[in-house]
Specification:
Elements (H helix, E strand, L loop, with lengths): L11 H17 L4 H19 L3 H18 L6 H15 L7 H15 L1 H8 L5 H25 L1 E3 L2 H8 L2 H15 L4 H27 L4 E3 L4 H17 L3 H24 L8 E5 L7 E5 L4 E7 L3 H10 L4 E7 L4 H4 L2 H5 L3 E2 L2 E3 L6 H14 L3 E3 L5 E4 L2 E7 L10 H4 L3 E5 L4 E4 L5 H10 L7 E3 L11 H6 L3 E4 L12 H9 L3 E4 H4 L1 E5 L6 E6 L3 E2 L19 H4 L30 E3 L8 E3 L14 E3 L8
Parallel strand pairs: 5-6, 6-7, 6-8, 8-9, 10-22, 13-14, 14-15, 15-16
Antiparallel strand pairs: 1-2, 3-4, 3-17, 4-5, 10-11, 11-12, 12-13, 17-18, 18-19, 20-21
């Protein structure tokens, strides 16, 4: 996203840096030029062996070898001729390089640096300091030359690539040199190598920070057609822009447009509120093939259940919702599609605690979670069935797993934490990735599974006990799933069961992030593509109002945190009854048509005392890192 991918691949820049260092040391040692060139060539061969002959490394090494040969034989050194000769030789040697993206990007960037960058640097030096002018010319030329290829490969264009590369450039030589010294020292002197590695970590941390902040910038990328036609169109557009900036009027017009866009984007980002409605209570973030769920616990506070597979996507979702404080992170189980996004939750906001289930598998992910939590000074605790968590107006009961299952098709999935979350306005059933055996065990346990919104287990896979969905009595089901995934999620049979149960289905792969809004006495559910664009024609000001079908058993389910969705507005909140049942809304339920004004109101019916609830376990503040 930040346009710094080339830094994680060995390329011509690394070769040039090492050559420059070796030649500078030779000059200080008063070594004659020809022996210095021979020594540089020997070290170049060793470097290729060290980093392995990838396409970009081969291109740089052969080009450098041709330039050294020209110097040793007294011929004129022409870098562009060396580049073309290197490409020709390598293509003759291995025609498959013509299909290598790394080889194409390396060649295009080098050609731009040799042909375009020097001319632009001369022009920029009239207005900028020499070092800044040279760096800006190099970064811009490389980005424009590689842009069409990158667009075809990734389907996006980075708008922060040039400034990110300008900030990263000073650290690259130090990281390269110290990294090579560490690698060659380790086999013979590991204590010294450890010291060198710690020194190399300093520029590497800077590079990672630049990439992380660049990727989190608003509008860091622009989507582009991922096709040959898209790449050709971008190439034509690039050439047209390069030609246009040769004219003063075009330059001034372009500068004005860029300045206006920057002011508009920065201003909108600073003053804009969260894209979700003011009454949002629950959002299933669009994190791809995984779960990333956010439950509102205060004006800028939330509880996060699972963090998805991508830290950037999870961080962006929380940032867009203006969540600055996470009272609790609950990881239903430790598969990568639920936990790898945890650094995105921890970064840039206060997190009080992390709760995990009873099964610490896979062990590698468990260790990673412990490491991330320790680095952020956040305690990690364990939840078991029967625990109750209270955060603000939110009460979450852990209803599974009551027995840790072993020997199933996927123990981590079947031992997912299952939460029944009660809010003043809505009840949620969050099911993790539990599969049919765990679902049947949950139903047999007699635990309450009624809810207004249910998160479809395991991304809607076919391994379901379909009786569970019907027993929830939900009005809407949310399936968190990635578009085009290779698992066949969600399965048609599962989606058919959702529809057969009279439940309105929402999917993050089609609807984007799914928002549940409970403002104004209505339960509204809207899908959003990107940062808040309503999907499927849904209008935020007139959200879809969902109604649970009335039936003979409807009155018996309208209590203890259950919300019957109906037309009309809600009256005040009634205090808890003597039995501790939370009757949250008094809703007007029409006896006639929805347009009729005649209504009959009734409180949640009296019921026999429920079983004793486990004592609530509030989240302590401040949280000590113990």
């Amino acid at each position: 996203t930040a346009g710094l991918t080339h830094l994680v691949a060995v390329s011509g820049a690394n070769v040039a840096i090492l050559f420059a260092v070796v030649l500078a040391l030779a000059r200080l040692a008063r070594v004659p030029p020809r022996p210095a060139m021979v020594v540089s060539t020997v070290l170049l061969v060793g470097f290729v062996v060290l980093v392995r002959p990838t396409p970009s490394v081969l291109r740089a090494a052969v080009m450098a070898g041709l330039l050294v040969a020209a110097a040793l034989t007294g011929r004129l050194r022409q870098p562009m001729s060396a580049l073309l000769g290197a490409v020709l030789l390598l293509m003759l040697f291995d025609p498959q390089l013509s299909r290598s993206a790394g080889f194409a990007l390396s060649t295009a960037a080098t050609a731009a640096l040799l042909v375009v960058a020097p001319r632009w640097a001369v022009v920029l030096r009239r207005h900028l300091p020499q070092r800044l002018a040279d760096s800006l010319a190099v970064a811009t030329a490389a980005q424009l030359a590689c842009g069409p290829l990158i667009a075809v490969l990734s389907g996006q264009i980075s708008l922060v690539s040039v400034p990110a590369n300008l900030l990263a450039e000073p650290a690259v030589p130090f990281a390269t040199v110290m990294g090579v010294l560490t690698a060659v020292t380790a086999p013979v002197a590991m204590p010294l190598a450890r010291i060198l590695a710690r020194v190399a970590a300093l520029p590497t941390i800077w590079l990672a920070g630049v990439a992380r902040h660049g990727a989190s910038a608003p509008y860091a990328t622009v989507a582009w057609p991922q096709s040959a036609a898209g790449g050709l169109g971008l190439a034509v557009t690039t050439v047209a822009l390069v030609v246009a900036v040769r004219f003063r009027v075009a330059r001034r017009l372009g500068a004005s447009l860029v300045a206006g866009l920057l002011i508009a984007v920065v201003g909108a980002h600073l003053v804009a509120g969260p894209w979700a409605g003011p009454g949002w209570v629950f959002v299933a973030c669009d994190v791809g093939q995984g779960d990333g769920l956010v439950i509102r616990a205060g004006p800028e506070s939330a509880v996060v259940v699972d963090a998805g597979p991508d830290p950037g996507l999870m961080r962006s979702c929380l940032d867009d919702l203006h969540v600055r404080h996470v009272a609790l992170v609950v990881l239903s189980h430790l598969h990568a599609d639920h936990v790898e996004g945890l650094p995105g939750v921890l970064q840039g906001r206060r997190v009080d605690a992390i709760e995990v289930g009873p099964l610490a598998e896979p062990a590698g992910e468990s260790a990673r979670i412990q490491g991330w939590a320790a680095a952020a000074h956040v305690p990690v605790r364990h939840l078991v069935a029967g625990d109750t968590i209270a955060v603000g107006d939110l009460t979450a009961s852990v209803i599974a797993p009551q027995v840790v299952l072993h020997g199933t098709d996927s123990d981590p999935n079947n031992d997912s934490l299952v939460l029944r979350v009660v809010l003043p306005s809505v009840t949620l059933l969050l099911t993790g990735d539990m599969e049919a055996p765990a679902q049947r065990a949950l139903l047999d346990s007699g635990a309450r599974v009624d809810a207004d919104i249910v998160k479809v287990p395991h991304h809607g896979s076919a391994n379901q006990d379909l009786d569970l969905l019907g027993r929830t009595g939900a009005v809407a089901a949310v399936t968190s799933v990635g578009a085009g995934n290779t698992y066949g999620h969600p399965a048609p049979v599962t989606m058919a069961a959702v529809a057969a149960a009279g439940i309105r289905g929402f999917r993050t792969d089609r609807d984007g992030a799914v928002e549940v809004d409970a403002a104004g006495g209505r339960l509204a559910i809207v899908g959003h593509h990107g940062s808040g664009t309503p999907a499927n024609g849904a209008v935020k000001t007139r959200p879809q109002q969902l109604r649970r079908p009335a039936g003979p058993g409807d009155a018996s389910t309208a209590g203890a945190g259950s919300v019957v969705v109906a037309l009309g507005r809600a009256s005040r909140v009634r205090p808890p009854t003597e039995h501790g049942m939370l009757c949250t809304w008094q809703l007007r339920r029409s006896d006639r048509s929805p347009s009729s004004s005649a209504t009959r109101s009734s409180w949640c019916p009296a019921r026999s005392p429920p079983p004793p609830r486990p004592s609530a376990r509030p989240i302590p503040r401040p949280m000590s890192a113990t």
